[in-house]
Write a structure and sequence with these properties.
The complex is a heterodimer of chains A (166) and B (431). Helices cover 44% and strands 19% of the residues of chain A. Chain A has 166 residues and is an alpha/beta fold. In chain A, strand 3 and strand 4 form a beta hairpin. The longest helix of chain A has 21 residues. Chain A starts with a helix and ends in a 13-residue tail after the last strand. With 431 residues, chain B is α+β, with helices and mostly antiparallel strands. The longest helix of chain B has 28 residues. In chain B, strand 7 and strand 8 form a beta hairpin. The two termini of chain B are 46 Å apart. In chain B, helix 1 packs antiparallel against helix 2. The chains are: A alpha/beta (166), B alpha+beta (431).
Chain lengths: 166, 431
Amino acid sequence: MRTIRKWLAAALFLSCAFSFLIWSPSQAQTQPDSDIAVVAHPDMPVSELSLDEVRRVFLGERQYWNAKLPVVLLIRAPVARERDVVLRVIYQMTETQFKQYWIAKIFRAETASAPKIVYSNDVEYNLVTALPGAIGFMDARDAARAKLKVVRVDGLLPGERGYPLH
Amino acid sequence: MHRHMLLVVALILAAGTAWGQAPSTPSEGESTKDLLERIDKLEKRVVELEARLGPTAAAPSTAPMVSPAQNPTVVEQAPGMEHAQAPNSAEQQATIQEAETHYPNLAIRGFADVDFSATNQPGPVSGFNPGVSSGFNLGQFDLHLASSLSKKITYFAEVTFNAQPTGYTLEVERSIIRYDYDDYFKLSFGRYHTPISYWNTAFHHGTWLQTTIARPEMVKIGGVFIPVHFVGLLTEGNIPSGGLHLAYEVGLGNGRGSILSRAGDAGDVNNNRAWLVNVFARPAKFYGFQVGGSFYKDEITLPTGENIREWIASTHVIWTKETPEFLAEFANSHHQDLLTGQTFNTPAFYVQFAYRLPWLGRVLKPYYRYDYIQPPPGEPVLSETRYQGSTLGLRYDISNFAAFKAEYRNFQRLSSEPRVNGAFFQTSFTF
């Protein structure tokens, strides 16, 4: 009996330890029910945008916050839930259409570069706080925990009734 | 940070051992006690080390980055984000440096296509050599270059390599240096695709980007209905207009060269500069919709020495969503012979429908286009441009960056020429 308990204890310990080892912010981001926050550099001179304005910014039609501050777009890499929501709600495009859109946009000489691809919330945090003019998306709970500047969309914050990005 | 990790490890260990403890034996209780003592010692050791390293190691210096007023939903910091809140490590600094824009940052993208066509009419009437009615054709090999020279200065270029009977010709299609003041004023100089046609500035020479195999007749490369290229300066930007989202382009340049299909790259052929105005709207409420119009004025000097005043007015209505896709452009070219005062109006338009089918992974897009150009008799510049024809085709996107296209075309150029029926195939791609 004691041997069985020891084995069970060892198994529980190993599973806890393994869970701890593989736990990372990226795994913590899988929160399918939460809203997606628009996060921005702390010094960005905008704290509220309409959904149309967010779309214009992320379509590259608005490229400057003001004459001295260009917009720096951050987009999560494929598979991230933030990207799925952004493509569905903001761009209203499939993954293929999104890629083609930016190829065409650069080809038309409308912009010199596509959005920067971000592979984790950690990197998103680092870039959005380090790059002036940066704007991106993050799971609202992670954004709040990281104390990032969250931009209101249509006057609403994530979690409020009618917030469009979810 | 380390202390927190140790506490978590200790909790896991304690949970694991405690789970197996009841009812505990004296030896297991001693083991647990030993373990806890070791954890205490390690915790003390961590505190000592943190004290030696100073306050920066004990508390990540992120406080200045946070504005509580901007974070009404702030909750306690999650352990997982702790790592992100200390962007001081070499790795994080490297990530940031890598993401920062460095100048110049040249990026090159290419487009190419290979075509096959077969028609019922041999020879030049179908676009072939005399006596030939089918064959392969290497389309344009197109390279696009984009480079930011600074935060506000960008250079764009497009060059094509074109197959000719004696080899390849290299053509600088676009070469533009642009200074951005803000979204409302951007000034550029160089060689452009004249922005008086939606197609001319939306797809350029990238056949992969366009749904169909070929450009509409009114904006075809090498055509003369509109001046496809423009050398000079261009100002462009958004117009404050609320949800209408207006934008403008105003240009001044050389206009057509001595060869009418070419811009005056090496200098104007007369002392009259061409100018253009293009205004379009992308209303916020109709995402994917664009409507616009433009005017272009120039004075053409024909090889015969005749001077012709040229006014081109055009308009376009576009729906870029692919379910459906709708492109329509209309233009009127007004020419006035400055010697005789005689005037000529040549209307031209195309209407194109396409629909991305929802099946088979959305890789199929059937389309139809009708092209029309009708110059009046005696037109001094556009007499050879008559064209009426239909195009029915299917685009198959093999991958995100390559496509097959197959078309049936029925068209007639000059009324004295026979009607042509033909099958056209293309594989186009970007790389």
